[in-house]
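Researcher: I've got a protein sequence and the SMILES for guanosine-5'-triphosphate. Could you write out the 3D structure of the bound complex as structure tokens? I'd like something to compare against our soaking experiments later this week.
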Amino acid sequence: MNPRKKVDLKLIIVGAIGVGKTSLLHQYVHKTFYEEYQTTLGASILSKIIILGDTTLKLQIWDTGGQERFRSMVSTFYKGSDGCILAFDVTDLESFEALDIWRGDVLAKIVPMEQSYPMVLLGNKIDLADRKVPQEVAQGWCREKDIPYFEVSAKNDINVVQAFEMLASRALSRSILENHLTESIKLSPDQSRSRCC
Ligand SMILES: Nc1nc2c(ncn2[C@@H]2O[C@H](COP(=O)(O)OP(=O)(O)OP(=O)(O)O)[C@@H](O)[C@H]2O)c(=O)[nH]1
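Model: Sure. Here is the predicted complex with guanosine-5'-triphosphate in place.
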């Protein structure tokens, strides 16, 4: 039997203050949820190992604070990431309206292959009654950008695993493609020599 391939991926979770980024990550990694709110100062990292097909993936997930005063500082953590979870709170219209800015900040740090950089959008807190952002509006935003959309609840553990693992799977495909391209570039000088001599 072939041993499983091992791949390390760096993922980030980004969005406005208080939308539930830390809660989503804790629900995904530790299956826990805390009602009390403790803002993230800068960034923190959690890891999780998962198996996708014939690959063991070590996910290193960077949780970034959504406070405006940290925006420029946290954007330095986006570099080298393999994929991004954008999050907003379905009961907080401002957090949805800020998504273009968060997305722009992330893409500004991603080189090369910006076009294929994997993102997913999570509309969190769907367990609450006072929704302000209709599902169709969020779906429309995603359709334009070709980003998958998940309605989630960190509190009730709705769709959390599905969303993280969709991103992990897309990030893995992109990383395989990038490695493949890098290998072909490394090979090409020898190949051209063997052709001419
Ligand atoms: N009802 C409900 N509350 C949630 C949910 N997710 C998070 N919360 C609450 O929302 C508050 C903020 O959650 P955090 O996970 O700290 O939010 P954050 O986006 O990491 O916040 P910053 O680090 O300040 O940017 C906390 O009181 C959480 O308990 C959810 O799915 N449903």
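Model: Residues 160-196 form the longest helix (37 residues). The pocket of guanosine-5'-triphosphate is lined by residues 17-23, 34-35, 37, 39-40, 65-67, 124-125, 127-128, 153-155 (CB under 6 Å).
Researcher: Great, I'll pass this along to the crystallography team.
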